[in-house]
Amino acid sequence: MRIKLGHGIDGNTPQKMYSTIGEKEVGPIGFLAILETQCGIATVPDSTTTRIIQYLSCIKESDNPNRFFHQSFAVDQFNVARTLLQWRDSWYEAGWHGEFGGEVSLRLQDMADIEQSAKNSVSNGLGERLQNILLMLKNQKTQIEEVCLLDELESFSPLWQQILNHFNVTIKAPLKASANQGTDLSILQNSLQNLSAQSLGKNTDGSVNKLKLAGDNSFVVIKARSKAVSARLMSQWLSKDALNQQDKTVALLASQSGNEMDDAFEAVDLPRLGFEGLSPWRPVLQVLPITLDLLWAPLNPEILLQFLMHPVGPLVGRVRKPLANVVAQSPGIGGEQWQAKLAELLEKEKNKESFVEKEFKQLKAEIKYWFDSELYNPDEGMPIEVAKQRL
Fold first, then answer.
1. Is residue 122 classed as helix, strand or coil in its secondary structure?
2. 9: alpha, beta or left, given left = phi > 0 and alpha = psi -120 to 50?
3. Where are the alpha helices (DSSP H) in the chain?
4. Does residue 289 sit in the same domain as residue 385?
5. 32 CB contacts (<8 Å, ≥6 apart)?
6. How far is 34 from 43, CA to CA, in rounded Å?
7. Are 52 and 158 part of one and the same domain?
8. Are 123 and 48 in contact (CB under 8 A)?
């Protein structure tokens, strides 16, 4: 596999940006997801809101009148939790491991005290995920043959630089302004090339470095009140102007709502580009065949790992994720590590403040159903009633 990595790429949906056989173009988040899959790390990131709520609970456990955040926390718990979580995440991205060596300020000590419970209660952020990858790469190889950087190595964080050092890295030559010199477009291109040296367009005194444009229509900005109106304007311009000139090549980037652009193209008799809206039922449809495959003997560890790692599942994520980490290290069901982790998870459920006996029994029944069901020979098939029940 060959990876093209750049900051400006939509890392959450790399398949929309660029993909050929054995080659992917992704942003940092997309590359991280590929590394986690190749290293067998079961990570289904929780939303920011979910992580804030998790961290808020940890702050409550540690809160007392002597904490530096106590008064603010009494007024606005959610925003205090969000701010402190942002601090925590930025420290992990810088290489923090959850504790400080030696004497530190009271504020840092308060954060370290919160971390004692947060380590096991808050879903991993970006920094923790990067640290896990760095640890795995010391003893594990991937199928990635080359990483081509679209940005300078120095523009990546220290943790990313350490990870990239494990691969054969090449850096793509920087883009050069290609517009005719003196045009508005060339002025803009040259300015963008110099942004890093000019601190994103600002002078040393903080003032904005404004560009003087002639208005020669080589660079045009179109603003609209909605995506639908914007798509209609663009399709009409392409049909009446750009495509009438045979020597013109037009590149159109539509990272989101491309299906609206296709509808606008069709309305003016232009060819559709083939954008499709993702169905919200897609993850559920992916889970269905996996759940059936779990009934075939012998049990396929890869299918089991897919079931545990999938973002959607019939079993709660707080059980699936820890079990996925076990399967990644020791494939299969019923081993010592599997049984120990199951016992630990059930004990944790019993010790919850919100413990309800009926819900606990239901969870145990679900675990037994999904992992202790009878397996069937693929050559002979399974009873239709079993398949119906599972679906």
1. coil
2. beta
3. 14-17, 28-39, 48-62, 70-75, 77-93, 106-121, 126-137, 158-164, 184-193, 227-240, 258-267, 282-293, 301-309, 317-329, 336-350, 357-371, 384-390
4. yes
5. 11, 126, 129, 130, 133
6. 11
7. no
8. no
Side chain identity, residue 387: A
Calpha distance 279→268 (Å, rounded): 26
On whether the CB atoms of residues 77 and 52 are closer than 8 A, the answer is no
> How far is residue 154's CA from residue 167's CA, in Å, rounded to a whole number?
16
* Lookup result for tokens 């080659």: 23
- Tell me the two tokens of residue 36: 């986690």
Looking at every residue in the chain, the average pLDDT score rounds to 84
Amino acid at 388: K
Cα 185 from Cα 178, distance rounded (Å):
9
With contact defined as beta carbons under 8 Å apart, do 128 and 92 qualify? yes
The boundaries of the domain holding residue 15 are: 2-44+130-171
DSSP helix/strand/coil, 268: coil
CA distances from 353 to 45, 57, 192, 349 (A): 25, 12, 55, 9
Name every residue whose Cβ is closer than 8 Å to that of residue 234 and which is 6 or more positions away in sequence. Answer: 222, 252, 261, 264
Short-list 131, 117, 116, 149, CA closest to 5: 149
pLDDT tens per residue, range 275-294: 766 667 777 788 889 999 99
pLDDT at 331: 85
At 223, the pLDDT band (50, 70, 90 cuts) reads confident
DSSP states along 140-176: ---S--EEEESS-GGGS-HHHHHHHTTS-EEEPPPP-
For residue 146, tell me if it sits in a domain.
yes
Residue 130: per-residue pLDDT: 94
Residue where a domain stops, chosen among 123, 146, 161: 123
What's the rounded Cα separation, in Å, for the pair 5 and 198?
A: 24
pLDDT, tens digit (0-9, with 9 covering 90-100), for 311-332: 888 999 889 989 988 888 888 8
Residue 178: inside a domain, yes or no? no
Residues 13 and 52 reside in one and the same domain:
no
Taking only Cα atoms into account, the Rg of the chain, rounded to an integer number of angstroms, comes to 26
Shared domain for 142 and 38, answered yes or no, is yes
53/40 same-domain check: no
